[in-house]
Q: What sequence folds into this?
């Protein structure tokens, strides 16, 4: 007989307003303990320095985590000009300095070059893998790194205010894999100076915003009480942007067994059109989410079957 999993079989999403100073993994552990959940993970990490929206997936929601990580993210942050740190934020050691302070006009003129699809070299202190090792682990051993540039998408990059001559506030709306610390590093370079992040807050992550969020402190205070469940969002919260196909009870039964079903009759009753080969879809039976699936070659194939 297999060992029984500890904790309750809770499934869904909860948006935590992460406090500063904690890793995402530590927040997951605290949420899991507070709710007595059997299984938990997170949908998009945050640096320990950062605060704000950290989506936590529970139970069957862990099977949809990629959709949360692929969503747009919005950050508000503060930059200190004139100093570079080895981590590109205030938790690192200052490695270089500059007396140059950019004017507001120069800042706003420089921002359009960082909007759209841009090339970005990740910070040395990042989770990018180098020969199977995390870059931040190599950086801590002072090994020289030459990380490759990658294409990321920045939808909006706004200058909010100059706090004083040394500091300014910004807001950015970006896609998966964008490092805000690298944006600041490269913006400072374009302005002929140096800079690093001192304050970073994520205000939105995919479908999760501050309106959905609960502080870690409040969740821990509520614990296993019914009030905590008011903040639990459905598993399919992160799937709202992908088409939904309506299954019959028999098709749902087959799909829970990992079998494919014919595409045409499902599409005909689902009022969905224009599905491309390989498109991700929700497979629903009534309101019940049966699987995350993909379409192709006239069939619907389950990718992740959910026991909701």
A:
């Amino acid at each position: 007989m297999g060992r029984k999993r500890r904790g309750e079989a809770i499934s869904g999403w909860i948006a935590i307003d992460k406090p500063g100073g904690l890793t995402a993994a530590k927040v997951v552990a605290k949420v899991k303990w507070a709710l007595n959940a059997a299984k938990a993970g997170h949908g998009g990490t945050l640096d320990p320095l950062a605060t704000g929206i950290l989506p936590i997936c529970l139970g069957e929601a862990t099977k949809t985590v990629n959709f949360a990580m692929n969503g747009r993210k919005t950050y508000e942050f503060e930059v200190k000009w004139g100093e570079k740190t080895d981590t590109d934020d205030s938790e690192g050691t200052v490695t270089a300095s500059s007396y140059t302070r950019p004017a507001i006009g120069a800042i706003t003129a420089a921002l359009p070059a960082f909007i759209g699809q841009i090339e970005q070299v990740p910070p040395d202190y990042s989770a990018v893998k180098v020969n199977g090792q995390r870059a931040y682990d190599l950086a801590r051993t002072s090994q020289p790194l030459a990380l490759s540039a990658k294409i990321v998408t920045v939808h909006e990059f706004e200058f909010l205010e100059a706090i004083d001559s040394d500091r300014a506030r910004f807001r950015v709306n970006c896609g998966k894999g964008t490092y805000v610390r690298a944006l600041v590093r490269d913006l400072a370079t374009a302005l002929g100076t140096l800079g690093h992040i001192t304050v970073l807050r994520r205000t939105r992550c995919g479908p999760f915003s501050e309106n959905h969020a609960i502080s870690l402190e409040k969740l821990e205070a509520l614990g296993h009480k019914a009030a905590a469940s008011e903040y639990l969002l459905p598993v399919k919260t992160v799937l709202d942007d992908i088409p939904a196909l309506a299954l019959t009870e028999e098709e749902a039964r087959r799909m829970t067994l990992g079998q494919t079903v014919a595409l045409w009759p499902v599409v005909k009753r689902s009022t969905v059109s224009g599905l491309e080969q390989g498109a991700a879809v929700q497979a629903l039976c009534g309101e019940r989410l049966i699987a995350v699936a993909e379409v192709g070659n006239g069939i619907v194939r389950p990718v992740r079957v959910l026991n909701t």
Observations:
- Residues 24-35 form the longest helix (12 residues).
- The chain has a mean pLDDT of 89.
- The helical segments are 24-35, 65-69, 104-110, 135-140, 180-190, 216-222, 249-256, 263-270.
